[in-house]
Amino acid sequence: xxxxxxxxxxxxxxxxxxxxxxxxxxxxxxxxxxxxxxxxxxxxxxxxxxxxxxxxxxxxxxxxxxxxxxxxxxxxxxxxxxxxxxxxxxxxxxxxxxxxxxxxxxxxxxxxxxxxxxxxxxxxxxxxxxxxxxxxxxxxxxxxxxxxxxxxxxxxxxxxxxxxxxxxxxxxxxxxxxxxxxxxxxxxxxxxxxxxxxxxxxxxxxxxxxxxxxxxxxxxxxxxxxxxxxxxxxxxxxxxxxxxxxxxxxxxxxxxxxxxxxxxxxxxxxxxxxxxxxxxxxxx
Amino acid sequence: xxxxxxxxxxxxxxxxxxxxxxxxxxxxxxxxxxxxxxxxxxxxxxxxxxxxxxxxxxxxxxxxxxxxxxxxxxxxxxxxxxxxxxxxxxxxxxxxxxxxxxxxxxxxxxxxxxxxxxxxxxxxxxxxxxxxxxxxxxxxxxxxxxxxxxxxxxxxxxxxxxxxxxxxxxxxxxxxxxxxxxxxxxxxxxxxxxxxxxxxxxxxxxxxxxxxxxxxxxxxxxxxxxxxxxxxxxxxxxxxxxxxxxxxxxxxxxxxxxxxxxxxxxxxxxxxxxxxxx
Lengths: 284, 278
Prior knowledge:
The complex is a heterodimer of chains A (284) and B (278). Chain A is mainly α. Chain A is 74% helix and 1% strand. Chain A contains 15 helices and 2 strands. A two-stranded antiparallel sheet of chain A has the order 1-2. The longest helix of chain A is centred in the N-terminal third of the chain and has 34 residues, at 60-93. With 278 residues, chain B is mostly helical. Chain B has a single domain (64-267), classed as MetI-like fold. Chain B has 10 helices and no strands. The radius of gyration of chain B is 24 Å and the shape is globular. The chains are: A mainly alpha (284), B mainly alpha (278). Chains A and B meet through α1, α3, α4, α5 and α6 of A and α1, α3, α4, α5 and α6 of B. Chain B: It is found in: Cell membrane.
């Protein structure tokens, strides 16, 4: 019977396996293969050469761009964590009725199901030279001339990242907080812990798995992004994703593939480290 | 009731600001889409009109918005149905610890964390080298599944982690076959969660951009069309489009939430005949 059970399991897993083989494993393999190919101005040809990698690692631009990508990831991570943790903490421990908790939680998650592009576009009337922010600042007398760095700058890029991805922190952190046994908090209080001490020594350690899952989401989304950086910086800033998409636009697929391989290796390395701290299947 | 601590009020203000931050920009472009015909991309409002919405419904130079909408709708439904079916099957499979399950799980996680542009690039390259034409319903469809299926699978894990196996045991004890147990016991119990999986499947596909970029071929999906507009449209017509799309998304979310809520209510009413002396 065990044989039949295993067979049934494989059959049920077959569709997922098939999709992932065709549209995940095969494309990655293809990218790795093409990263060794050569390119002319119009076409690419099979070869086995290390030119693409040699060029990639020989160019100072590469290091600058990777550094910028890490910078975006780190700053966005710190901000989304701080905001996400605070919001989740409020929802989990300060809102008393469960109906209210669900309603407010939904309020936080609904933007996740709407278009990212539209949400980026909607910053334009805020941040532009004649936008709401600049008009308000000038009316209040904070500045005389409109600030140029509000839109099409690192500031705008990070603002958009935080706007788009804080939800990915709120949801898993809230999820783990809701599983904390209230008896533990009561015990901490009974033993004389202050609110801050309970937060630091009871809630924070117990929330770590949620923080890790949120971190995985935010870091990978920011590391792999190319569209937010392009749109919010007005094509003035670069990250690795844009390096790849620029090569694609110029039909330089082998060079794009080589950059993609290095990016993928970097992201998977980070995830492998983070996964050591959390068992995702248990935390759901 | 106990008095609320001062931290409650501080955090409540923080939360309100966060919600304002989340929704403020969207609401702003909602207002600005009603600009008068002479109005620009930012305040002040130059009169109030439906001019820009009317613009959307007229034949225009900016592109094929309604064709893109129809394609995105069809693709969304296709991805939704596939995501639900494949996720449920995979969820059932993962309860059995089959050989290779750990590997498949890590593949699914990889699918979730891999930079989207890699899927786009890889699938595009494969189709190109095989001499196939990329099309939203083939390569685009498959690429989007690599984004929706991991979410579906994770939801199924969450569902089955909380699933009480004694229901299945009871069904088996009463002589139900494996298929009957799934059809008449497991599926009805997990049905409300499947609405969640469907919501993820549809909306993630409907809004997907990066994975469809190089895999949709010559016919754009709506997000691609909108992104194209950002580079060459400088009138509030783009806000009008954004507002309509967002309203459509909110409508879809509302329908799914209502369906889930209705199902939960129905179950409360009909789910148990305990104590009714039937």
